[in-house]
Amino acid sequence: MDLLKLALDWAKSEVFSTRFFIFFALGFLISSIGFWQLGKTDLARAYIIPTLVAGILLLIIGGGLNYTNIQRVKQFETHFNTDPQDFQQSEIKRTEGTLKEYTIVFKVIPILIMLAAGLMLLTNSPTSRAISITTVAMLTVILLIDGTAYSRMESYHKKLTTIILQK
């Protein structure tokens, strides 16, 4: 039963973590409304659409991940009770694949941040600056949340493989 508890604890922490995407999405959406209602300068008005888009994207990411992880929590116990060995093997394969995906994310997102920062340096229009700054902010949020998720996934994967070695 230690394996099931480990998996459920991990999945519940993921559900909690993905809600931070939604939290930051709401921040971007509120910022968009604020720029819309209070923005007096061209630069402030230029932030309305980029922060709205960033908020919607983070909301979609957070909502999708939250739903997926809630479904996973429901399936863990059924899968474990059906075939504990298969459950463990499938979790090890899944975590290995996810860790590889995170490795790609941690290479791509910094490159995208650099491109957005470069765009900010190369252009002088308020719209380009607002898009660049909002993109950097959104990608930084994704990087922070994914960084903690990667750390949890790595720890979970190590514990899964340790349980195999103990048997």
Automatic annotation (TrEMBL):
The chain crosses the membrane at residues 20-38, 44-65, 104-124, 130-150. This is Uncharacterized protein. Keywords: Membrane, Transmembrane, Transmembrane helix. It comes from the Bacteria.
